[in-house]
Amino acid sequence: DFNRAGVMEVSSLKLEARMFHVKITREGVRSITAEGNVLFSGGKRKGRSESAFYDLESETVVMTGNPWISDEDMGKLEGDKLTFDIADGKITAENNGRKRSHSVIKK
Predict the structure, then answer these.
(1) How far is residue 88's CA from residue 67's CA, in Å, rounded to a whole number?
(2) Which residues contact 100 (CB under 8 A, 6 or more apart)?
(3) Is residue 32 classed as helix, strand or coil in its secondary structure?
(4) What is the per-residue pLDDT for 105?
(5) Which of 27, 26, 36, 32 is nearest to 10 (CA)?
(6) Helix (H, G, I), strand (E, B) or coil at 102
(7) Whole-prediction pTM value?
(8) I need a labelling partner for 11 at 20 to 30 A (CA). Which of 43, 58, 89, 93 fits?
């Protein structure tokens, strides 16, 4: 494990945050937790949140803390928690206390 601030590029994503916590095993990087004004970009998508957890094995990024993701072709999605599945391009939004509790955008 190690902690640092700055910019990281992993797979097809570029992440920027005030603090990264990277979990490394003998097999390589397993997960990345980013905290503090997290910005990400990949392909036609970009987003922002206060924290994000990137699980490299499942190829998902879970964003919390006023997250949003925008797609050049599909528009912008906001929620209390956004899960971006990198492998199939789906974004799932979960909301607490709102009329709409679940939305999915698939490119």
Answers:
(1) 20
(2) none
(3) strand
(4) 53
(5) 32
(6) strand
(7) 0.83
(8) 93
